[in-house]
Amino acid sequence: MKSTFLILSPKNHHYYLRRFSFDFQNKANKTKNSILFLALLALSVSANAQNNQIQQDSTKVEKLQEVLLSATRAKDKTPVAFSNITKKELETTNLGQDLPILLDQLPSVVTTSDAGAGVGYTGIRVRGTDATRVNVTINGIPYNDSESQGTFWVNMPDFVSSVEDIQLQRGVGTSTNGSSAFGASLNIMTLKPSKVGYATTTNAVGSYGTRKHNISLGSGLNNNFYAETRVSKIMSDGYIDRASSDLSSYYVEGGFLNEKTSVKAIVFGGKEQTYQSWYGTPEAVVNGDKDGIQAFIDRNYSSQEEADSMLNSGRTYNYYTYDNEVDNYEQTHYQLHFTHQFDANFSANISGNYTRGKGYFEQYKDDEEVGDYFPGSLDASEEGDVIRRRWLDNNFYAVVTAFNYKLKNLNLYLGGGFNKYDGDHFGELIWDSFPISVPIRTNYYTSLGEKTDYNTYLKAEYTINSKWFAFADVQYRLVDYKSNGLSSDLVPIDVKKTYDFFNPKAGVTFSIDNYNAIYGSVAVANREPNRDDLTKNPALPNPERLLDYEFGYKLKTPKYYATANVYYMDYKDQLVLTGDLDNVGDPIRMNVAESYRAGIELQAGFKFSEQLRLDANATFSKNKINSFDYVVYDTQYDPNTYDTVSYEAVITSFEDSDISFSPSVIAGGTLVYSPVKNLNLGFISKYVGEQFLDNTSNKNKSMEAYFVNNLSASYKIKPTWIKEIAFNLLVNNIFNSEYVSNGYTYSYYYRPQGSTDDAITENFYYPQAKTNFLLGMTLKF
Known about the structure:
Layout: E1 2-11, E2 14-23, H1 30-46, H2 54-70, E3 81-86, H3 87-91, H4 99-102, E4 109-113, E5 122-126, E6 134-138, E7 141-142, E8 163-171, E9 183-190, E10 196-206, E11 210-220, E12 225-236, E13 245-257, E14 261-275, E15 281-282, H5 283-287, H6 290-299, H7 304-313, E16 326-341, E17 346-369, E18 383-407, E19 410-432, E20 442-463, E21 468-486, E22 492-511, E23 516-527, H8 531-536, E24 544-556, E25 560-581, E26 587-607, E27 612-637, E28 644-658, E29 665-673, E30 679-688, E31 691-692, E32 702-703, E33 706-717, E34 724-732, E35 740-752, E36 760-767, E37 772-780
Parallel strand pairs: 6-9, 27-35
Antiparallel strand pairs: 1-2, 3-8, 4-5, 6-7, 8-9, 10-11, 10-37, 11-12, 12-13, 13-14, 14-16, 15-36, 16-17, 17-18, 18-19, 19-20, 20-21, 21-22, 22-23, 23-24, 24-25, 25-26, 26-27, 27-28, 27-29, 29-30, 30-33, 31-32, 33-34, 34-37, 35-36
Helix pairs in contact: 6-7
């Protein structure tokens, strides 16, 4: 059904009658249709607002937004290392790729994409720490998955289109809600209420069938009320074979705002269906090594179909071939925020959140045994093929508060939050070829995970005089986790653990003059093990502890800036992959007593003229484990019958070894040239040094350094009939580099009885796309 609307739209203190048409063809779009209609109605109403109210509304927005931000954000004088990125800076590259990819130019950041082109499953590492150690909040609400502690941006496609700004704090940073920042924290703030009504649509197309379409609408402030909405669709075939993504999302916000009070209700969500490319590509396939591929085929007993695929696919090889080998998940977030400025000195905000998530990934598995699904069955050894779905059905509830009191030179914050998670894990067979009868949709495992997390913090900022600024922050956190049932490997789960943590922080900043400052801070973070650590590790691990020292220098003038930040992150009982396996062969993490990350982060920017600007950053680091034991399993077999004769662990001790996925050099730079008004041309570079796939510092288990260069171009025109038309072009990897940005490895012995053959090592990589482009056009009304 095609619906057409006529609305009044404000522009330059005048109003114009405009026509908008949208086509909704199925029942699934009923919600989006309603959202758009309400927003359009709000736009029409807002056209009656008085022009002289706009400036007053602007003051309200800025003042109360600052109240909402202040509890968890670092400020210019806060003695921690951080970077801010604004909506305007994100706009030129926001053409469909996931949020981590858009943050790639920030200091100490490395990003990756399973599908190779930045759409679908993507990841971010900061100072070598993975996403499970990066605390993420959205409007102060924790976003990390409570059990895995990871973040899954694929569940929030095009969320950047509803983001006002992002702050990345490196290291422990300031206290925030959710799991402890064990390498960085990412604080995301959604859009400020627009002062005037607007309508915006962005459409982009690119390589590998990538396309993005969205429309955003806002009413502007009218009699203190406002409404905004967005709907988006992103699709991509992926660089890796069959690694397609079909993503949709929406964002709706409505609220009330006056000089002292803000009430906003936000609903946003996403639905994703991605074809799996989690397996990675064998090293020999990535390198085009025919002999190596054949050796891999022989030792892994690959089927003829698998062998043909490896020999003919090249670096875009995908192990999965079943038509519906997909991840299918939907997540919806409901947020309510209340902010009030009681007087010039005292303000407060309270926020509530409910997140609903449900979905599965589907797999085809051949030559499975009945006993793999129904232990104890009389027909346990019977074989057949199956199609199975592994489900997660979860609920997340959160309440966070923050109170701010200002008294002369003292600024106090009292905040904290409580959140609760419950998640059902279960697997079902939707088809099988077993010789015995199995009812359709049979659940072959179920387990329940429950987690509660309470934290409270007190922060103090004290301006001693015009030169000195002091900061102190203490946080208490109480975590309770329990899980029971059967794991997906049919292993009994019975976990009940409680942790309580005390995390103090303190620092000072000394302003040398109006342009130069130095700072120093020390902070403690403690962190509980994740679900896999507790359910798969036969020896329950200890919680981890981090002592983070940061020292820095800042220079900032209207024309140029420079910063240097030295850090030393001292870990106790850090959980790392050691090569050990659980009783079904999955890798597990173990505590290592002592490890550290030490480095220096450099940033500089120079404005040569109004037309030319350069920004660059570099991190040089050393990331070490003092000592740990690496485990490889030795299987010896009878060369006549191939029956296993012995199976034992071979333990090798390592000292002063490199922490996996922690490059010693990370550098980036952006050169922007504006030859004419409204035209910006950018040259973007990124260098990432060698990374080891495990903690043995073995070059045979590593990823080579890579240097990638991109081009960007943006051009804006402002005709009389529309507010703005913007064209954006992004050409990635312009020199066609063949590189990988992620991977994994495992080693094992499989040798005839009495043999002393070396261990076999299998490396798998995630190749990234060669030269590719994205082209978009944005219309702003």
